[in-house]
């Protein structure tokens, strides 16, 4: 589990393989002393398992399945990536709950200045529309952001100067692909409300009475 608060920017050193890939990343500015083989690290918003520790970074194996639904298959040596270690229970939740399981790949449609901030407009697949809410959370390349605008096929976020300095998002140009992960709570809420196999129904007076709620209480929404 992660929070979408990027801790360091890494640089891809090696990429080996085609169907499955082995990726090595270095980040001299990050304290790697607390990271061990088997730990989880989010890279560009994708949860990876550390398979080898390097003096200034790590190596991870990326499966064909992950390559098919993320942007990691496009990485080449020299590429800069956002990094975040797994969340510990004692950590502050500065962003929002992020699983590191990418839902889809979107693309940057436009970028423009908005005062000292940068306004970015991204396209997204239609199936994600129900999870994107104004002032709700979304993860873009591992960065926790707030949705400020939404249309049927795009959403807009604003990056403050700190985010521009601490992540790779400032270097995006129109057409660039990005990893998207919707709000975890929104996805689980939809499952709870729509899972017909488990016969989950909308709350009604009849349902409440069947489960012990006192009958005969006046509905405040009715005269």
Can you walk through the features of this model?
It is a single chain. The chain has a domain at 8-85: Elongation Factor Tu (Ef-tu), domain 3, CATH 2.40.30. It is built from four helices and 13 strands. It has helices at residues 64-69, 161-166, 184-194, 205-210; strands spanning 8-16, 21-26, 40-43, 46-54, 57-62, 80-85, 104-114, 117-123, 137-140, 143-146, 149-150, 154-159, 177-182. β3 and β4 (46-54) form a beta hairpin. The mean pLDDT is 90.
Unreliable spans: none
Percent range of helical residues: 10-25%
| Helix/strand structural class | mainly beta
Termini separation:
48 Å
CATH topology of the domain at 8-85: Elongation Factor Tu (Ef-tu), domain 3
The portion of residues forming beta strands comes to 35-45%
* Outline type: globular
- Tally of strands: 13
- Using the 3D structure, state the CATH architecture of the domain at 8-85: Beta Barrel
Helix count equals 4
Strand order of the largest sheet: 10-9-13-7-8-12-11
| Series of secondary-structure elements, N-terminal to C-terminal | EEEEEHEEEEEEEHEHH
Determine and state the CATH class of the domain at 8-85.
Mainly Beta
Sheet with the most strands, sense and barrel status = 7 strands, antiparallel
The average pLDDT score comes to 90
Estimated radius of gyration: 21 Å
